[in-house]
Specification:
Low-confidence stretches: none
CATH class of the largest domain: Alpha Beta
Helix content: 40-55%
Order of helices and strands: EEEHEEHEHHHEHEHEEHHHH
Radius of gyration: 19 Å
Largest sheet: 6 strands, mixed
Number of domains: 2
Length: 253
């Protein structure tokens, strides 16, 4: 579980986060949604540790980030898995070597144990035939799956996904969503996802927070989303006429 307590962040006197408090629950897919420029990416970077909040506290399973020393912060980073928007695979490495990279950097496993772990993770995401291929030799969806395998290679407690379906076709996006949900439940991770994809929200939104101009405007589940009377949220969710028509039956139920 990750708790956010009154998180503030400004850049050059522009306040981007205006006191965000919420809880990201263990074993669930926790989604951050909002318009471009709302502050959701800055919030995710604060939770990951790429940015330090100006004030407030982030608590990882009763460990306060504001009280951590450098050694404790380094240990925390070893518990984080990150799925980047563009997959961020190394072009010059095979798929297996990409997954081995964090194991060689941060684990104390033997070489054989590292290889076995990398193969296990690739098998888990359905890439058992892609060990020796390079990123340029596989599809975008396969690259995302390889990036997920790398993200879970160190058996993280926390998984962070930045626009996991960016650049993917709808069918592949659904498969990636299902994979993330399955892995979250299987590993009992705290998964936090930054997304614009409303189909992902409908599929994965066990816990959703909606950020509007730096404030937490709304939070709830995907079931509660369609019955909300929050005008800002509804304007965002139903911005697409096609999406509104496709989900009318959900709203009526």
């Amino acid at each position: 579980m990750i708790q956010l307590e009154d998180i503030h962040k400004s850049f050059e006197q522009k306040e981007v986060l205006k006191g965000i408090s919420t809880v990201f629950e263990t074993g669930k897919t926790n989604l951050i949604i909002g318009q471009s420029g709302s502050g959701k990416t800055v919030l995710l970077k604060c939770v990951v540790g790429l940015l330090d909040p100006d004030s407030g506290d982030i608590i990882y399973d009763n460990r306060h980030s504001s009280e951590m020393n450098q050694k404790e912060r380094t240990h925390l980073r070893s518990e984080l898995g990150m799925l980047f928007q563009g997959s961020a695979l190394f072009d010059s490495m095979t798929i297996q070597d990409n997954v081995l990279f964090p194991l060689r950097m941060f684990s104390e496993l033997s070489e054989k144990e590292q290889v076995d772990r990398a193969k296990y993770c690739l098998d888990r995401v359905g890439l058992n035939d892609a060990y020796t291929l390079f990123p340029s030799e596989i599809s975008g969806g396969m690259q995302k799956r390889a990036a997920i395998a790398r993200a879970i290679s160190l058996n993280p407690k926390y998984l962070f996904c930045d626009e996991p379906n960016s650049g993917l076709d709808p069918l592949t996006s659904i498969k990636i969503d299902e994979l993330i949900m399955d892995i979250t439940e299987e590993y009992k991770m705290t998964t936090v996802i930054n997304t614009h994809d409303m189909n992902s929200v409908v599929t994965m939104g066990e816990k959703i927070i909606f950020i509007y101009q730096g404030d937490k405007e709304w939070e709830g589940s995907k079931e509660e989303l369609f019955h909300s009377r929050n005008e800002k949220l509804n304007d965002f969710v139903f911005a697409s006429k096609f999406f509104k028509k496709a989900t009318e039956h959900i709203v009526k139920d």
